[in-house]
Amino acid sequence: xxxxxxxxxxxxxxxLAQAVADGEGQPIRFRVQSVRLDVQxxxxxxxxxxxxxxxxxxxxxxxxxEDASTAHTVSLELTxxxxxxxxxxxxxxxxxxxxx
Length: 100
Description:
This protein is of the alpha+beta class. Helix content is 23%, strand content 34%. The strands form two sheets. It has a four-stranded antiparallel β-sheet with strand order 1-4-3-5. Strands 2-6 form a two-stranded antiparallel sheet.
């Protein structure tokens, strides 16, 4: 199954949005400063009408069987922010409660 790089980032965005929603009303929330995404990709030239180059994210284990010349590691450093440019706050992993 081929998963595009844009689809991967879209899924990551969805996961962060869910974490934000889960954090609403929690006594402890985390601010996301940045997100580092390291993926193994295959680069292919498209022969479709519009052509172009496609980046496909390789599934776990696929990188080992790929030819070294077609598999590449891409590292993306993403800064998370809300639509209005504010910080992204997510919930704590266990919904921790602060005691007096």
